[in-house]
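Sequence only, no structure available. Ideas?
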Amino acid sequence: LETERGKDKDALRQAFKARKKHDYTGIDSPESAIDALRKKVLEAGMADKLGGYVNRVEKTYKDAREVLMSAVGAGLGLSLVFHEIERGVRGLVYAIEQGQSVEKLVEMGRQLAEMLEGASFLVRKSERETLKASDLFRYVAFSNRPRCEYHRIRLLNGFENLPDKDFSIKGSRRMLTATLTNLVDNAIHWINVIGEKDPGKRCIWVGPSHDLEGPAIVVADSGPGFQDDPEEVVKPFFTRRLEGMGLGLYYADMAMKAHNGRLAFPEHADVDIPGACKGAVVAMVFTDREKK
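Reply:
I predicted one. Tokens follow.
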């Protein structure tokens, strides 16, 4: 037990130390991440289009930091916010570098600001709204397709062929968007790790399921799958990613609990998914929701 506690303490300390230069952002703190994004926006001549979203990201981070630094569990909460900044900035900077359309960049900037605001759910209660599960996927697909295309990964929309299985959710759109984005981000990483070159075998499927105790959004991929038990992978700072912080699945688990649901790891035989997705299967299960 003491050994495991020691690992967590070391990981927490490392989360606030200078990090290695990232492939795209070169950030070593939340502040420098935001500065790097602002510089990239200015270089691209898009301050009028994206500057407001960068300011929103900065304000949300500072507000969260002020509250969390005086609260119990401050380090973990602030690490979650940092995790969302790093991942979101990476995607937007990459899209700018790839010359994506102004409309797409503006929408991605808006989503980055909203996802970060969702990540600060430990600080304040998020507003609840009713939305379709298919719309949640649409939000996430919009910002993740550029990355999937770059890595030659097919992002499959399981809602298209199963419209009768779509369902309504009452919750925080920002929090749930951040949760689903984390699951897709994990899938992209591990598909790349196995090194499969055939594009036909590089895929992520996101779709509805009614095979568990409640309606669920299932994310299945063609990666290597999980090596560890579910109770281990949702622990804070538990990760097998070389540069990972071990907060993505922890965040997802906390967000689902905040919605009176759970993050599940069903077997392949328990849910209806494409045969090509033989890797990890993760489900956002909603047990307390609005009727369709």
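Confidence is low (pLDDT under 50) at residues 16-25, 69-75.
Hope that gets you unstuck.
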